[in-house]
Amino acid sequence: MGDASLFDLTGQTALVTGASRGIGQEIAVALARAGADVAVTARAAASLGACVAAIEALGRRAVPLALDVRDVAQVTTAVNAAADQLGGLSILVNNAGAEEVMPSLDVTEALWDKILDTNLKGAFFCAQAAAKRMTAGGSIINLCSLTTEVGIPTAVPYGSSKTGLLGMTRALAAEWAALGIRVNAIAPGYFRTAMTEAFYQSDAWQQAMLAKIPMARFGELRDLDGIAVFLAARASGYITGQCFPVDGGFLASI
Ligand code: NDP
User: Fold this and answer.
1) Cβ partners under 8 Å of residue 247, min gap 6
2) How far apart are the two ends of the chain, measured CA to CA in Å?
């Protein structure tokens, strides 16, 4: 096989959770641009219209599905619907996520459960359901975070969930290599999305953060296209259990 096929996802079938906006929508469209047919999920299927239109404009199939990843029964139903309608499943992107910063002395059980159930429990059961359908092997990509490497005050439930997700990435990679399923993670740096918009409202915060990023700019969503396609594709065929920061040099310089 020639090098041209290294990043080609033609014939691949993907499921991307949390694709109604932000990073999930970006990655779903990037996988379609590389040739994959893509099932996309959000809590309300109606919010997936723009993502579906962008995938179909590329000539690929899009399957929109309603899914709250905190509900394991819904996870099973949605993953099986994706695999049934796409004719298989070879790529899962565990992107759906929730974040809320709060002093740890004020964190409630409800907030802890919301963040852990979305970011960690949801990702695990999506992976479990997807692995059962990845009969010819596959690639699972988890959205981790710089909080797996750096302790960020007031983000303790979030950081705990993402650090747990990194542990899950490594353990599943070790366990499922025998099934031909690779499991890796992406750790985005600072990207302006609905999740993080409140921070960007502060010029002082922006200037302080930019001073810590060697490339002196925030991430743009398209900065994540390459790593997502790479981890889904044959190009990364001997890589599993790893987490890839996409952070403009932040981690390297602290
Ligand atoms: P957004 O808030 O813009 O998007 C989050 C997505 O997750 C939405 O599509 C939302 O869909 C979905 N979602 C939230 N809760 C649930 C749920 N219970 N069940 C199903 N879907 C849900 O965030 P980003 O695009 O910024 O983040 C995407 C991922 O990247 C997250 O895992 C986040 O932790 C991670 N990340 C982001 C960074 C950043 O700087 N932005 C940095 C590091 C990591 P809907 O609300 O329509 O259901």
Assistant:
1) 146, 187, 188, 189, 190, 213, 219
2) 41
Averages of pLDDT over each 10 residues, the chain, 254 residues: 81 98 99 99 98 99 98 98 98 98 98 98 99 98 98 97 98 99 99 98 98 98 99 98 98 96
Domain 4-244 has CATH 3.40.50.720: yes
**Per-residue pLDDT at 222:** 98
Task: List all residues whose CB is within 6 A of at least one atom of ligand 1.
Answer: 17-24, 42-44, 47, 67-70, 95-99, 118, 143, 145, 188, 190-191, 193-196
With contact defined as beta carbons under 8 Å apart, do 55 and 40 qualify?
Answer: yes
- Centre of ligand 1 to C-alpha 5, Å, is 31
Q: Where are the domains positioned within the chain? A: 4-244
The CA distance from 227 to 219, in Å, is: 13
Paired sense of beta strands 181-188 and 138-143, if any: parallel
Q: Using alpha carbons only, what angle is made at residue 70 by residues 67 and 72, rounded to the nearest 5 degrees?
A: 80
Please give the Cα distance from 234 to 250 (Å, whole number). 28
Pairing of the two strands 243-246 and 62-66: unpaired
Report the nearest-CA residue for atom 34 of ligand 1. 97
Contact yes or no for 44/37 (Cβ under 8 A)? no
| CB half-sphere exposure, 160, CA atoms < 13 A | 17
